[in-house]
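Convert to structure. Protein one:
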Amino acid sequence: MSNAAEVLKPKIHADKMNIGLSDADRKEIAAGLSEILVGTYRLLIKTHIYHWNVVGPLFHSIHVLTEEQYKALFEATDIIAERVRALGHHAPILSGTGVDTSIELKASGRSALEMVRDLIGDHEEAVRKMRDVGTTADEKGDLVTTDMLTERLTFHEKALWMLRAIIVD
């Protein structure tokens, strides 16, 4: 049995990569993308739970919008994880790194307005982190990661616009 467990253990590829990025740069970018992946999962789960639990006069608008958003976030997890793998790392590699992987869900008793404001805060956090990692990737010449994060930023900024439009006074 222990032999089977050993075979299934993830291992970093022993081959050296020569894709125009140093090992250190690939590691730094992959670590940033892993943090983005955790944040994306957190936002995906929260969005999905709010989708189920929203009530009130804005129910339909928020229910439909959050369904579109959690589906897009689910697709994004695969894209981000595959980029980490293309950089030669496993996704996510977070244990022991101090990255908070917890998700605080207090949907019960929250108003639709509170749910939307909470989602806005999480999307804004995602945008800030993506700008930071995207800038680093761009400075290091990782055009693929920069392009991917530009697309992800576009999604999050549109999500912010739509969420804010729902709760405007």
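Protein two, convert as well:
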Amino acid sequence: MTNQFKLFLFLLLGCFTSSVHASYDSSSQSGNEERKIWVNTLVKICDPVLTNLANETLKTNMPQESLDPKRGHQFSHLEAFGRTICGIAPWLELGPDNTEEGKLRGKYINLTLKALSNAVNPKSADYLNFKTPYQPLVDAAFLALGILRAPTQLWGNLDKETKTNLITELKRTRCIKPFNSNWLLFASTIEATLLELTGECELDRLLHGVETFRDKWYVGDGTYGDGPQYHADYYNSFVIHPMLTETLLIMEKHHVKGAEFLPTQIKRFTRYAEQQERLISPEGAYPVIGRSIVYRVGAFHALSQAALLHKLPKTVTPAQVRCALTAVIKRQFNAPHTFDAKGWLRIGFAGSQIRMSETYINTGSTYLCTFGFVALGLPSTDSFWSANFTPWTSLKAWNGEQVEADHAI
């Protein structure tokens, strides 16, 4: 063996060892340090959307990346805004304070209020389209869910005119008939939001999605079909569990018949979150399966929401969810070419990978990734953030540690 070859093997081993150890680096970080990573990443993602819409330059400045530019993406701006609000709202709801993070929240609360005012103002250059079939139903629902998640800092701080305009735009979506899939829950979520904000809703439209998933599309062990057929993708997390759970919570609050399904749904939701935590590898990777995979860490919307609502299973501690999701966030958003030169998200899973997307996906669509950050709505004192580093299930299992057996419900 030549000295040169020995040197090559030594360098190769060093590179391999570094890459393996890199997956465990977060064990040296405190929950406070990891929270900073989440906050800084979320703000980096959301700033171009909120700043431009607040300044009425969203339509002028947002790029239009897509596999199908001929299709035209007249709804991409509503997609970007609705999804951004849905993801950032729980963090904003903590409100401003005198800490560095609290001052940053105050800045983005103000930007969001201005952006929301422009989005629903027919006189604004950035007035968004809520009524033309079919896409606005989707992103009006995401926006509505964001409003539900920040009742004090968003809804409570809107001026009377903007509140009226927002209600008008949400009601415009009633002309859009949802497809027989997860889309039913977009209609349910909008009606639940209208019920919460105004005291009235179209009851049939509210209940149809809930009853269909409850009575027809549950396939077992915490998973629903996306329509009559099961789809191997992350739509149980992107949409189904979060929206079904939030809608039922509003129904229970307003004593709507059918809310008695909530305890069963919570049991299924918790089980699904348990499964999601096990999907995250020791390196912060997860299976690249199904459509809309370029929504990145938004694939863990349900897991992050379960942490936010304190609905994690007994087998999963909040801190291990934090550590697992931190590993995913660092891996995806540190990938080269994730953002363009002006800070807008590029289409991709871990970088710029447009061929991984579908033709319905555009620049605005990618902001669904913010959904993975909803656990930032937990204050820094919550055990999700305050507890020491805790290895997640796959990290423990592949490290030879004891892990409890997994059981279906």
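The longest strand covers residues 218-220. The first helix runs from residue 3 to 22.
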